[in-house]
Every structure is written in structure tokens, then in C-alpha cells.
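Problem statement: downstream parser choked on a complex file, so we are re-checking the raw output for the NAI run. The parser issue turned out to be on our end (a line-ending mismatch), but while we're here, posting the original submission so the record is complete.
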Amino acid sequence: MIIKSVIDGVVARTAHPLGCKEAVRQQIEYAESSQQIVDGPMRVLIIGGSSGFGLASRIALTFGGSKADTISVSFEKGPSEKGVGTAGYYNNHYFKKFAEQAGRTAINIQGDAFSPETKAQVVEAIETYFEGEVDLIVYSLASGIRHDSGNVWRSVIKPIGEPVSGSTLVLENDQWQDSTLTPASAEEVDATVKVMGGEDWEAWIDALINSESIGSGCKTIAFSYIGPCATHPIYLEGTLGAAKADLHQTSHSLNLKLANFDGGAYATVCKALVTKASAYIPGFSPYIAALFKVMKEQGTHEGCIEQMQRLFTTKLYNVDHVPVDNERLIRIDNFELDPETQKEVTALLAQLNESNFMQLADYEGFKREFLNLNGFGFDNVDYTKKVDIDNYISKSL
Ligand code: NAI
């Protein structure tokens, strides 16, 4: 079949296997040619390793100097009569191929990371492939829903207290769409914390401690976002910010637990980037398009792989101690929050409207990165060629 890009609002409905291969290949190329991770972890578990920061960390750790073997958990759909499947499915498939060609072990576990069954499956895989221990756990889930013991929680992206007006760049039709978000109820805040806060991260670390799967010096990281004042009403001061505050708190209790293994736990604050999750946040896309414009002009723009390679080579490894801020957070959002950068972004954002956002901001770059995430928009992939999708059925594990 010939696979075309189909976007529904800001959600991709199709993915191109060969474009996903190209996206993984390009990230590997970056990791191999960058400053290398020294004395990095050899046995890594990534929870949410099929796209975004999780995939980039997997690539950096395997190809960026550490030569890590990896187990990744993700929740992706393969091809079926219902559709071609998700980009993460093909990313898993091709990451495994490239890693195995390089002589590394790469295990893909498809399952619900929140469930005890998946945790037990991972413990078993650690026994089988890692001689029973891990050296690093990357927690990189972005989810809208959590099922647990018969309960269901849905995260919402809403402000807390006051309504917030913002605009979204609708990728389906390249339109600017204004909307006003009503404040979250107390139940919605709690549900978002349940899905995106630290509870499940802690459940993973507890499960791994109980099964004696934590190696000496083992570290764990989870990703967070703070951002500038422009995004605070919808992010930091909203439901997602509440969940991230919980995640930061959890990092402290996990740090105490991992101190028993000479290890540590850190929430890592990243830069705003286009991922499946962030394109979805109302009011966020004009900021990202403005940020990309300014950071590209300044030569400080980074994508997921650049962020992860920098994290491992300057913060988590290659250093005597892990540098943190006064809230014990690792900060790799420093280029984004640079005052000069923010001054220009704020000025640009103030000018943006529905008729000029394509000219003034980097909408083209924003859209291209979104297309790339789903395996589209690569010059060296022939999208007119038929893809034999049956080749990919059940092949990613
Ligand atoms: P993403 O959507 O690219 O990746 C999410 C991963 O979670 C995928 O591997 C997906 O399969 C997996 N996943 C989701 N639900 C699952 C489930 N129930 N079971 C197993 N796997 C599941 O997301 P992205 O953007 O890389 O986000 C990762 C983390 O980074 C999140 O905590 C996010 O808040 C944080 N972050 C994102 C930023 C951004 O601008 N994208 C900025 C700063 C932090």
C-alpha cells in the first residue's frame, strides 16, 4: 500500500515505516558523531522508549558512547485491518534492528506500563537479558489515561483556578485556532496527577527494588517541564504543572531509596519540543513555533536527541557529581530559558496572529518536525512507493 500522512486536528492517524527508520537512523548518526558518554550505564530500562525523549535517550545510550543494552516498554499499535499502526511501533522495530546490527541487545515490551503484569514482565526480562540488574531507569511516559485495579483516571490539560485563553496551530489545515480553556475541577487535577505524577514512577522503582533488580550505582530520571511565564497559565500553574510538582517530590523519596544502592533519582527539566504529546497542549504551539524561530537564529536549537546526548554527557555521566538547581532538578532547559532568548520570543509572540504566524514564526519547522515524528517529510524517502505492511506484523518484539 501507499501510505500518506493523515492528520486529524493535531493527532497523526498514519505513520510511514521507512520514514520512521530514517528518523531513528538520523538520531543514531547524531549520537555517534557527538561528544561521547564515558563510563555510562550498560543495562538500561526505558519506560516509554518508543518516541520523543524516551526513544532519544535509548538511542543516545546505545549509540552515543555507552553501548548500552536496553529494555523498553511502550504502548504502541502495530499494523492491522484497522490501520497502519503508530510511529512508535516502527521506531521500536527499527531501533532493535540497528541496535542488533551494532551487537547490542534491544528488547521491546509492548504493554501498559501502569499495570503490575507489565512490571512483572520487565523484571523477568531483566533476569533473562541483564543478569538480573539495571544501571539506569528512564521514566518517559506521556499518557492520557491510567487503568489500575479496576479504576480509570484520565489526565486533562487545563488551567487551575481561572480560565485561560490561548491559540493552537492546527496541523491538519495549517490554521490558527483560538480557544478558552475552563479551569479543571479538583477531581480532574487529582486524575492528572495520578496519570502524569510520580506515583507510577515510584511503583516501578519499588517493584525493581523488591525484585532485587537494582544494580550498584543505579540512577533513575523522569522528565519535566517548567517553561517561561508565557506558558505558565496552561502548564506550570495548570494540571500538568501539578503533576510535575508531584513528580519532583517523588524524585526526592526515590533518591533516598536509591542512595542505598549508591545511586540517585532526578527529575530532569527539558526544553519544549514537538512530540506527539506536546502538539496536543492547547496554547503551546505558537510558543514552540516562536521559540524555534529564535533558537534556530541564535544557533541554540535542540531536538530530543541533542537534549538527551547533552543530558548524559554533561549532567548524568562524564561528571564527578550530578549538577542540580536549588530544587534538586537537573536543568537542560537553560538555552530555552536564556533571558535574551525569552526576550525575543516574548516580542515575537506578541506580534503573532492568525494571518502572520506562518511568516513570522517557524511554523514550517514546527510542522516538519511533527511530520518527521510520524515518518513523513524526509527528502530521502520515496513516499510514492508501495510499502508491504504485512512485513511488519508482529516483527517489532
Ligand atoms: P511521547 O508521546 O513522544 O512518548 C511517550 C511514550 O510513552 C511513548 O513511548 C508511549 O508509547 C509511552 N506510553 C504512553 N502510555 C503508555 C502506557 N500506558 N504504557 C506504556 N507506555 C506508554 O512523549 P514525550 O513528549 O517524549 O514525553 C515524555 C516525557 O517528557 C513526559 O513526561 C513529558 O511530560 C516530558 N516532557 C516533554 C516535553 C515536550 O516538549 N515534549 C518537554 C519537557 C518534558
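For whoever reads this later: Residues 48-54, 73-76, 88, 112-114, 140-143, 223-225, 270, 272-273, 275-278 surround NAI (CB under 6 Å).
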